[in-house]
Every structure is written in C-alpha cells, then in structure tokens.
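Fig. S4 source data, part A: sequence.
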Amino acid sequence: MQDHCLEVVAYRVADPDRADHERRLALDKIRSFPGFLAWTQLTGTGEAAQRVDLVAWKSEEAALSAAREVGEGADFAGFRATIGSVASMGHYAANRPAPVGRLAGDGMEIGRFRLKAGVAEADMRAAHARMVEQHLSRQPGWLGQRLARLESGTFLDIAIADSRTRAIAICESWQGNADCEAFLALIEPESMEFGELV
C-alpha cells in the first residue's frame, strides 16, 4: 500500500458556534478534492474554542495542494476567518492506510466470498492488496477498503466511497482490469450488496 499522509492542525477559534458551521461547510467542499480520504474534527472537551483537525490524504502532494487552497482560496475565507490562532500544523506519513472517515451519505460495497480450493489465504491477501493499490485506490471517490475473515471461513471485502453511486462505479471498474481479474481468479463470490451510511 502506498504511503498515506495525515495532516494534523491544532488551533483556537473565537466563536465556537460560527466555527462549527464554517467547518461543516469546509468539509463539504474539501470532500471533492483529489486524494481526500477523511477529516476527523475534534473540539476540546473542556474548552470549545480548542480545535484539532486530522485530515487523511492519499499522498503528501494531495495534502499540500489542499492546504494551499484552504489557506488562500476564496471558498475557504469564511473558515479561515473563524481561526484565532494556529498552535501547530504538520504532515505525517502513514505506512498503513490512513483512517477512513465514516460520514452519513458515504457509500459502501460489501462483497462476500470464499477462497477457491487450494488457494492460500496469503496469496489472496497479496492479490487483494495489489488490486487496491494499483487500481481501486486510484478511482474517483474511493475512501478505503478492508478485508474481514468470518468464523464460517468466508471473507468480506468492504469498500467505502464518498457516495453509493461512486461505490457502484468503482465496483463496475473491476471488469477488464488485470489486477482485479487476478484477485477474482482466486475466489468464489457468494454475494454483493451496496448501501450507504446513515
């Protein structure tokens, strides 16, 4: 899996209610930025003026590009105006997938499957990682993907996208892709469902 980037910003706001509103608006805008994965918005438990934002990106380049836009772009002027002072800001590499935001309206696809006879789990997992790295993570709207092993011996492939429509489109992109075909050659699909978080 490629390195992901986590942006951590600690700051204070003058008007917490207005800051909450502007932060929600900023999230709505930034979700469409290339490479965006998640934005965890924290507020101080003892002081509502204290804020920490954890923003996950697919790459440092995506994080830095977005930081420039948020810092200078007219679309984020209202958000910037609520910030009284910035205590710290930094970008950090993550050698595992960055945290995936789970927001109402995010789409998901859950595929249930078994391994074909004679296929080792390690081989399936390696093929899955290649497929995610080389193809799925590069699709518009993709937010994250996880495998789960159930007690029954079946597996779940859980994909999160920024909408149900995008989740379906990403699933349709599997057809004809060599990395996806290599993964599919190792498994016996049982079911597939789409939905969205509420």
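Fig. S4 source data, part B ends here. The beta strands are 4-13, 36-43, 50-57, 83-94, 107-115, 142-149, 155-161, 187-196.
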